[in-house]
Design brief:
The protein has no helices and 13 strands. By secondary structure, it is mainly β.
Length: 100
Protein backbone atom coordinates (compact mmCIF):
# COMPACT_ATOMS: atom_id res chain seq x y z
CA UNK A 1 0.00 0.00 0.00
CA UNK A 2 1.40 3.40 -0.96
CA UNK A 3 0.11 6.83 0.00
CA UNK A 4 0.87 10.42 -0.90
CA UNK A 5 2.79 12.19 -3.64
CA UNK A 6 5.24 10.80 -4.41
CA UNK A 7 3.98 7.29 -3.61
CA UNK A 8 7.24 6.37 -1.87
CA UNK A 9 6.52 8.61 1.15
CA UNK A 10 4.52 5.89 2.97
CA UNK A 11 4.93 2.29 1.85
CA UNK A 12 3.43 -0.67 3.72
CA UNK A 13 4.34 -4.11 2.35
CA UNK A 14 2.05 -7.17 2.39
CA UNK A 15 0.70 -8.54 5.67
CA UNK A 16 1.71 -5.55 7.82
CA UNK A 17 -0.37 -5.37 11.03
CA UNK A 18 -0.99 -2.01 12.69
CA UNK A 19 -2.82 -1.99 16.01
CA UNK A 20 -4.92 0.78 17.56
CA UNK A 21 -3.71 4.27 18.42
CA UNK A 22 -0.57 4.02 16.26
CA UNK A 23 0.68 7.29 14.74
CA UNK A 24 2.67 7.33 11.50
CA UNK A 25 4.05 10.86 11.16
CA UNK A 26 5.59 12.30 8.00
CA UNK A 27 5.45 16.02 8.75
CA UNK A 28 6.31 18.38 5.89
CA UNK A 29 7.08 16.09 2.94
CA UNK A 30 8.47 19.02 0.95
CA UNK A 31 11.04 19.87 3.67
CA UNK A 32 13.47 17.04 2.93
CA UNK A 33 13.79 14.30 0.31
CA UNK A 34 14.44 11.70 3.04
CA UNK A 35 10.96 12.10 4.56
CA UNK A 36 9.13 8.77 4.44
CA UNK A 37 8.21 5.52 6.16
CA UNK A 38 8.78 2.06 4.67
CA UNK A 39 7.51 -1.04 6.49
CA UNK A 40 8.48 -4.55 5.35
CA UNK A 41 6.29 -7.64 4.99
CA UNK A 42 4.79 -9.36 8.02
CA UNK A 43 5.86 -6.57 10.38
CA UNK A 44 3.68 -5.84 13.42
CA UNK A 45 3.36 -2.34 14.86
CA UNK A 46 1.82 -2.69 18.30
CA UNK A 47 -0.71 -0.50 20.09
CA UNK A 48 0.13 3.14 20.80
CA UNK A 49 3.41 3.29 18.87
CA UNK A 50 4.64 6.58 17.40
CA UNK A 51 6.74 6.26 14.25
CA UNK A 52 8.32 9.41 12.81
CA UNK A 53 9.36 9.40 9.17
CA UNK A 54 10.34 13.08 9.20
CA UNK A 55 14.00 12.11 8.82
CA UNK A 56 13.33 8.80 7.10
CA UNK A 57 12.33 5.48 8.68
CA UNK A 58 12.84 2.04 7.19
CA UNK A 59 11.61 -1.06 9.01
CA UNK A 60 12.50 -4.48 7.61
CA UNK A 61 10.49 -7.68 7.28
CA UNK A 62 9.24 -9.76 10.22
CA UNK A 63 9.84 -7.01 12.79
CA UNK A 64 7.79 -6.56 15.97
CA UNK A 65 7.51 -2.97 17.22
CA UNK A 66 6.44 -3.16 20.87
CA UNK A 67 3.50 -1.40 22.46
CA UNK A 68 3.96 2.35 22.95
CA UNK A 69 7.38 2.34 21.24
CA UNK A 70 8.63 5.62 19.82
CA UNK A 71 10.99 5.82 16.83
CA UNK A 72 11.81 9.50 16.29
CA UNK A 73 13.78 10.37 13.16
CA UNK A 74 13.52 14.13 13.73
CA UNK A 75 13.31 16.65 16.51
CA UNK A 76 14.02 20.26 17.35
CA UNK A 77 17.68 21.23 17.78
CA UNK A 78 18.48 22.49 21.28
CA UNK A 79 22.16 23.46 21.22
CA UNK A 80 22.68 27.17 20.63
CA UNK A 81 19.06 27.72 19.78
CA UNK A 82 16.13 29.61 21.16
CA UNK A 83 14.89 28.82 24.67
CA UNK A 84 11.50 28.12 23.09
CA UNK A 85 12.18 24.69 21.56
CA UNK A 86 9.45 25.00 18.90
CA UNK A 87 11.32 27.96 17.35
CA UNK A 88 14.47 25.93 16.70
CA UNK A 89 15.34 24.20 13.45
CA UNK A 90 14.42 20.57 12.88
CA UNK A 91 17.31 18.09 12.94
CA UNK A 92 16.78 14.87 10.97
CA UNK A 93 18.43 11.46 10.97
CA UNK A 94 17.35 8.31 9.15
CA UNK A 95 16.46 5.24 11.24
CA UNK A 96 16.88 1.73 9.81
CA UNK A 97 15.52 -1.34 11.62
CA UNK A 98 16.88 -4.48 9.94
CA UNK A 99 14.83 -7.64 9.25
CA UNK A 100 13.55 -9.43 12.37
Amino acid sequence: MRFGPPAERLCLADEVSIYGYVRLVLGDVSADSSVGIEVGSRTIINVGSYLSGEGGLSIGQDVLIGAHAKLLSAGHAIDGGDLVIARNAISRGRIVVEDG
